[in-house]
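User: Can you write out an input/output pair for a complex, sequences first and structure second?

Assistant: Here is one pair. Inputs:
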Amino acid sequence: MSSITYLEAIRLAQQRALKEDPRVFIYGQDIGVFGGAFKATKNLAKEFPGRVLDAPISEDAMVGLAIGAAVEGMRPIVEMQFADFSTCGFNQIVNQAATLHYRTGTPCPIVVRLPSGGTPGSGPFHSQSMEAIYAHYPGLVVMTPATVEDAYTMLLEAIELEDPVIFCEHKFLYYHLKAERLPATVGEALPFGKARIARPGRDATIVAYSAMVHEALAAAEELMQDGYDIEVVDLRTVRPIDTDTILASVARTGRLLVVGEAWPWGGVAADVIARVATEGFGLLDAPPQRLNAKETPVPYHPALWGTHRPTASSVANSLRQLLEL
Amino acid sequence: MTKANSPKTKGSQTKSSQGSSAGTMARELSLRAYRTMLEARLLEEKLAALYRSGKIVGGVFLGRGQEALSVALGVHLRRGDIYAPLIRDQAGRLAFGDTILDTLRTYLGSSLGSMRGRDGNIHRGRPSEGYHAMISHLGAMVSTVCGGLVAKRFRGEKGAVGATCIGEGGTSTGSFHEGMNMAAVENLPLVVVVANNQYSYSTPNDRQFACSDLLSKATGYGVAGHRAVGNDLVDCLGVIGEAVAAARRGEGPQLVVADLLRLVGHGEHDDASYIPEAMKKSPLGRDCLELARHSLIEREWLSEEAADSWHKAVEKEVEETASKVLREPAPDPSEEDWNAFASHSIGRNL
């Protein structure tokens, strides 16, 4: 039986958008004939001549071009070769794309795809998780799909949105995450901005997103052997953030662990905990906890990298501590 | 834009020179440009007065001395073009279709202005009408205009140009470089006008760049280069007119460099004491508005009387508009939705 990878889902979503919407074009480095560093645009330049364009190594200008085209009615998708390089386009994203609608009333419907997160051997400059930085800026939608189905439907949704979307697709999920089929319509998926209960449980809630959802699910399985039933909430979109689903889950379990692959300081995990502490303090039976990457640049060596990021095993340890509080 | 390319010389009391139709067009264009320069100058003098009397909060950044260069680009653009003016482009903005009314509304923070108090002064525009609202980060608008032109190319729209302006200091940014290079790679009908006013805020050119001539950058990018005398309206109209026409003909990006001097500080808070007196007295420091008036009168395209009556009429319009805007409501924080998102589906879970 054929199966579709997370990466292929992203390619197929772009293919569908190009086919169905003449406003869509894709712009990025090496994405044309070459098909992209990860092959997320494989064969698309051939299938859609003139609409999948190689860009110079100019992240700032790539985003600037997308903004200008969006103002004129297009629906550009910018592929950053790695999320890390989006810092070179940071100014255009946060100062122009994010502010445009608020300032002028003109929407800025662009999608910036960020191949995000760590993989073994990628090192400090090809491994970063940038979602918290972009989520900080009002006006940006930040998506962090954790499943093949979400990678597909959320990218289609991102293209439809009137707002600039930072689409954090996780490189670690590209090849090994698979699904048998993709949803035929976006309507089959959860509504935009809605978190998903990836695993129902009663003893504690893990809130996670992107690749960490899978580490959380594995940790939950591990704790089943200890007799605990752990609920896992997949945020799907970190901005806007579905506080209602988080609070409802904490109301059921009384305990909260937030897991993020990014650094802890001022991050998504910190914000989730702040929301629960402020709006749901009475629901908590124990102090809310977070588990993030260690506070160093992302290391190169697989042995270091595997300890730098949260894993099923470190999530399980954090859970055990939380359950004893 | 409603006023773009509208004839501003209608009813003017000018002597008619019986030249060719090209001559008539040059005259009409020059007169329209001069009238717009006058509007920009008098409007900005009013803005400075309002700033000094505490009516304008935030900065006031004037284009005194740069009106000829600015207007020369604005008058050559038309509906359907894309224009991203910068800090000293009041004249170009008015020529492209911005109004005295909306300028005053934006500076004074009227809730009826296009920016509704959400942004101010020179950061105004109507992007959906091809009139971009600059961000402060220099060079950023070059690639933005490129994007608009790419969109037009996708749609098969021919004949439109995109234009933006920048100072010599802005050419040092990575953004400027990336945008110029991208425009050249895509062979876009982009016109970039560099106002080399010798000082980026207070920093002189010898601390800004080391090339002997900014125009040599055109060769580096592989785009056409043009040089204009920045305070000579007739020269600016000719040179920029040719640059815009070349872009419209499909000859790719055009870089125009013009030397001049700003005759004010960087903003109204700045006395520009760092500009040497000798430079102010050099040809660079000549006032483009006075030169333009003199030149048009000498050509008998404009009479002294007509020039004086324009002056009075513009002054009156500026005063009346300012009085009106000063009575307009400020934005009410309680009526704001405080939501930066355009999508209605994004609720309060921000």
